[in-house]
């Protein structure tokens, strides 16, 4: 399970400015950002593939309101609902480091963006027509490839905040127009 760190707090600074009725966090980790969403949205769902994350978030984030749900599922595959906002601080480090191990709490695929592509693609069926997705990304991943993916599907991208750290640059990106994304299968 991923514990809150600089990237989490950067995402929180952006998320606090969004309000609406329905929000989804994909990959809740500790549940820190899901709890933040609960302050500004009437109905919130948090998902994670790791059941331990679901249990931890349930026990440690005071998500006891009847309009807040935690579900163990891959992305949003178990959901049949439309959201105003989807957020994700996905694992974004490249797994192709030569270190000989992969940790799915921090590695987002060979180039660090493959999981992010899956999240964007799956959001097509989960967003209201004017819904948006907020994603955190790192300069350590293949940002050019992510931007090409966004351009290929004619999505609207806006970098909302950028933070320079000692070893990387973090960005929170807002993506819109996902509902109009073609159903062509994406290629990584």
Automatic annotation (TrEMBL):
Which organism does this sequence originate in?
A: Candidatus Nitrosocosmicus franklandianus
Return the InterPro entries for the record.
DNA_methylase_N6_adenine_CS, Euk-Arch_PrmC-MTase, PrmC-related, SAM-dependent_MTases_sf, Small_mtfrase_dom
Q: Which family does it belong to?
A: Belongs to the eukaryotic/archaeal PrmC-related family.
Give the record's keywords alphabetically: Methyltransferase, S-adenosyl-L-methionine, Transferase
Query: What range does the record give for the signal peptide?
Result: none
- A Pfam family for this UniProt protein? MTS
- Name this polypeptide is given: N5-glutamine S-adenosyl-L-methionine-dependent methyltransferase
User: Its Gene Ontology molecular function terms?
Assistant: nucleic acid binding; protein methyltransferase activity; S-adenosylmethionine-dependent methyltransferase activity
What residues does the Methyltransferase small domain cover? 9-166
Q: Its GO biological process terms? A: methylation
